[in-house]
Amino acid sequence: xxxxxxxxxxxxxxxxxxxxxxxxxxxxxxSDLCVEIDWSKQPRFNPFAWVTLAHLRTQRARRDPxxxxxxxxxxxxxxxxxxxxxxxxxxxxxxxNWMMVLPPLLQRRYWRAVVKLEKESKMECCPRRNx
Length: 131
Fold this sequence. Notes:
The chain is mainly alpha-helical. 66% of the residues lie in helices and 0% in strands.
């Protein structure tokens, strides 16, 4: 029986914990540097975590095309939600397209969803494909 539960969002708890305790962490371990940081600004997370998540999700879904599609789609939506620059989104988009190769039918479905997401976000990031 296939698991139909929505994909887990494992990155949210550690991001929340890090956001909550980061200032105290920095004060304890790097007190000289801590006083130089403008703590009024919202923290932004490095795309390294996103690429790591993409790798882990690819490994987990390797033999299940539907799970791979769901993982790739979730990662694609996250690209647009982080508020990264268009150039960064395009580069990271290339990573998942190289890493998460879908069967042709699911790839066409994915491209249609990406085009719709681009229109909704008013940001064209991907070269047009034959859908």
